[in-house]
Amino acid sequence: MGVEGKERSRDLETGAQVLSGNMGKTIQRLRKAYNLSLSELAEQSGVAKSIISQIERNETNPTLATIWRLSQALDVSIERVLASGDEEPFIEKSSRADTPILVSEDGKMRLAIIGWLKTIEWLQWYDVQSEPGGVLDSDSHQRGSVECLSVLEGEFEVEVGGVVQQAKTGESLRYRCDRPHSVRCIGDKPGRATMVCILKAAVMD
């Protein structure tokens, strides 16, 4: 093997180690976020506990089949597990036209997705604007999910499991959203709020 070939081989090996290290950190972060022990992840994925531990410590290069099993157990895409990390600081700007908008069934409440789309599998962040009487009915999110609604203007009402609570400007409501829930803009004025949903990250009693 010539010098050029040796250099390319070293580059490939270095790249593989970086990718493997990023993947190990991602798997460990997700496992801890979902409050799973190594044994529990091993049981859910069918991958040996010792192998998962080695992956997290960047001591082995797992097969694609192993990565797929872990991604399925953690309920994420393979692309996300394999995504390379970037520790460099950055600034990312989104225009109004680039911001996705969700609309309630009654057409009176609009949610702009202002959070980072790359985190939407575990953290969702919305700017909520509603006409008076607007209602957003939502199905259950993943178990352990929590939502926080901070009212900026007007008045909102949240109903979860038959329990209703109201919040005015400057007040916030935090509630379990791993069951059907509704958000309503009450009163005769438009409302605006920030809504943050943390999926699978909360340990509930």
What does this structure look like?
- With 205 residues, the chain is an alpha+beta fold.
- It has 2 domains: 80 residues, 434 Repressor (Amino-terminal Domain) (Orthogonal Bundle), CATH 1.10.260; 103 residues, Jelly Rolls (Sandwich).
- 30% of the residues lie in helices and 29% in strands.
- The chain has 5 helices and 10 strands.
- The termini are far apart.
- About 4% of the residues have low confidence.
CATH homologous group name of the largest domain: Jelly Rolls
Annotated CATH architecture of the largest domain: Sandwich
**What is the CATH top level name of the largest domain?**
Mainly Beta
By CATH, the topology of the largest domain is Jelly Rolls
Organism: Microvirga lupini
Keywords: DNA-binding, Transcription, Transcription regulation
Domain HTH cro/C1-type: 27-81
GO cellular component, one term: cytosol
Distinctive features:
single chain, 205 residues, alpha+beta, 434 Repressor (Amino-terminal Domain), Jelly Rolls, 2 domains, six-stranded antiparallel sheet, four-stranded antiparallel sheet, 10 strands, 29% strand, elongated, DNA-binding, DNA binding, DNA-binding transcription factor activity, transcription regulation, TransReg_Diox_bact_type
Short description:
With 205 residues, the protein is an alpha+beta fold.
List the helices and strands and how they pair.
Blueprint lengths: L2 H31 L4 H8 L3 H8 L7 H10 L4 H5 L18 E3 L5 E5 L9 E8 L4 E4 L7 E8 L1 E6 L2 E6 L3 E5 L4 E6 L4 E8 L7
Antiparallel strand pairs: 1-2, 2-3, 3-10, 4-9, 5-8, 5-10, 6-7, 6-9
Protein name: Transcriptional regulator with XRE-family HTH domain
Pfam family, one: HTH_3
Organism: Microvirga lupini
